[in-house]
Structure formats: C-alpha cells, structure tokens
Amino acid sequence: MLSFSWPDKGETLSWGGGQSGRLGHGHQSGIFGLLKSDSEYTPRLIKELEGLKVKNVAAGMLHSVCISENGSVHFFGEKAKKKLGYSEASNNLVPSMVDELPYSEKAACGGYHTCVITGGGVLYVWGTNENGCLGIGYSLLHCLIVEFVGCSTDVAHSPERVEGPFLSHPVYEVSCGWKHTAAISGGNVYTWGWGGSHGTFSVDGQSSGGQLVCSLRL
C-alpha cells in the first residue's frame, strides 16, 4: 500500500510501501540509523517534483504516475521489460517525464499497464497488454508467438492511442484493475481486458476492445 498528497504549493509527498521505487524518492530510508527500508512511514517530499504543481496522481502495483498542472506526465517505479514495456530492466527510482504524450489531464495505473487521458479526451496506453487490457487489440507478432510458441506476452513499449468505434467520443474518465480497464466516453461505460470470475466484466471471458457495460444518464 502507498499514499500520495499534493498540497497546492508545488510539493508532492508519498509514503507507504516503496518497492521498485514507486514512491519516487530515489533511495532507501534508514530505520533508527541502522536498517534500510524501501518503505516510508511518514509523508516525505519527492524532491524531483519540488516546485512542480501536481494535479493528478495514480499508483499501480509497482509503479506510479503524476501529472502536473502544465500537462506533463511523470513516471516512476517498475520498468521491467516484460511488464511495463521499457527496453531496460532497471527501475525508475525517481520521476522522469514521458515525452511522447501531449498535454494530459488524468492517469490510471493497473497491475503493469498505464492509461493517460489528454486534454482533448484522447486515451493513451502502454505497458503489458495481457488479456487485452490496453484496448488496442493484439499485434501480429503476439498472434504468431501464441500460435507457434504458446506464450502470450504482448507489450506496448511507448504510449499508443486507443482507437475504435467504442471510443467515438472524448474520454473523460478511466480506471484500471490488475489486468482490465474501464473508461467513460459519450455517457457510456466501456470495459476491456481480463474477464475473470468475480464480475470484472458484465460478460464472461476477456476482450481486447471495448465492451459496453451501461449507458449513464448525466
């Protein structure tokens, strides 16, 4: 478990479990001057974000994302190649900006995938596409691997836009589970990814594209 706080004065604080650098502090803390721990037991300033006003924060299983008031996206935590789509295996111990994204408003983190909504209501995703949780379908390479090798690893190494008839309107909310995603677009709720056995979907199985769950009356 971890927590964030971002008072309106250019400070972002984090505390809790800090595995893989997901707190963004860049180093371990001492306990009574002797032991080292990844965890923070009281709120601590993320120095690399000092002076940057943050408007949105999301936390996944082993990674975190902050969005500043100027729309920049900052990532820290787990960067394992087969999980979050990065070419190197080392973790991001301090926040680094995701340069490929335009002005952004909101973020959501799943187990090993990330979603960001831009100012224009466009949804971008990256990370593992296990069970179709990114909503971008499957790559040809993924299909060939499944057919001839039997494994099912599929990863987006950089942000990709989610497109399709199920997102014909701007997206204004997104939420991630471990291996599934939900978004609100045009007053409708859509889900994709792992169906599981506990009501993740309104239908059984899994989907790599949007499934309409319900229509909202706003």
Write the layout of secondary structure elements.
Elements: E1 2-5, E2 13-16, E3 29-31, E4 35-37, E5 40-45, E6 54-59, E7 63-68, E8 73-77, H1 81-84, E9 92-97, E10 104-109, E11 113-118, E12 123-128, H2 140-148, E13 155-161, E14 171-176, E15 180-185, E16 188-193, E17 207-215
Antiparallel strand pairs: 1-2, 2-5, 3-4, 6-7, 7-8, 8-9, 10-11, 11-12, 12-13, 14-15, 15-16, 16-17
Structure overview:
This protein has 218 residues and is mainly beta. Helix content is 6%, strand content 44%. The protein has two helices and 17 strands. It has helices at residues 81-84, 140-148, and strands spanning 2-5, 13-16, 29-31, 35-37, 40-45, 54-59, 63-68, 73-77, 92-97, 104-109, 113-118, 123-128, 155-161, 171-176, 180-185, 188-193, 207-215. The strands form five sheets. The chain has a four-stranded antiparallel sheet with strand order 6-7-8-9, with no helix packed on it. It has a four-stranded antiparallel sheet with strand order 10-11-12-13. β1 and β2 form a beta hairpin. The two termini are 33 Å apart.
DSSP helix count?
A: 2
Radius of gyration: 18 Å
Q: N-to-C terminal Cα separation, in Å?
A: 33 Å
How would you sum up the major sheet?
4 strands, antiparallel
Strand order of the largest sheet: 6-7-8-9
List keywords for this structure.
218 residues, mainly beta, four-stranded antiparallel beta sheet, disordered C terminus, RCC1/BLIP-II
